[in-house]
Specification:
3 helices; 51% strand; 227 residues; mainly beta
Amino acid sequence: MSAGDTKNGYEDILGVWVAPADEAATWHYRARSPGLASGADGRPQFALVSVGSVVMLALTSAWGVSAATLDAIRIELAARAQLPLERVTLRQAPVTVDGASLMLGDGKGAYVSLADSKSSGVPPYHAAFNVMLDGEQAAKVRKALLGEHGWMAVRYAVTDAAPMRRSASTYQTESVRVDVSLRSNDEEEAMSAGRYRQSQAETDDAGTAVETQQYTADAADWGLPRS
């Protein structure tokens, strides 16, 4: 969990960050960390293929929560709030996920980006990677598949939705009308003098600055078969 999640009132429910929304009986959720996407057969979308001296790595990552887990969270929230299950609404937290990075590490916590990918833009924010590896890079990937931490990871940059900017305008008007009567040669002339003033003041509420948070998952925790 990132510091931003703690500050914004999220709590861990069944391994997912959950926080109350502004609407009644509604909660926002966000995944704790990214993982591998699953295909139609339920298998992780991951392949490491060697052909002679050529090694290809292909995978699709995701930052989301399964439907089964969301159903279980709704049951938990309904029990806590003493609400009928059908009244409980769970929504993906309002965020922007532009893309993800596939990274290789040194086994000690330092990472460098191997490839970047645009996300699908909608939950669960799929990002696809297809990379040709050299010998050193392939060795690091294989260490990760043996369950060693610090050799390969996927990182998502997630930006909270910007708050709405509001403007307020204040108008002030003032008018003064003066009538002056002048007499000349028994004729009355009327002269009117008028003054009109209008002022306008506008203020902008800058709101809270948006924050980008990093969500990272080490490949050793992806649940892939050891190879």
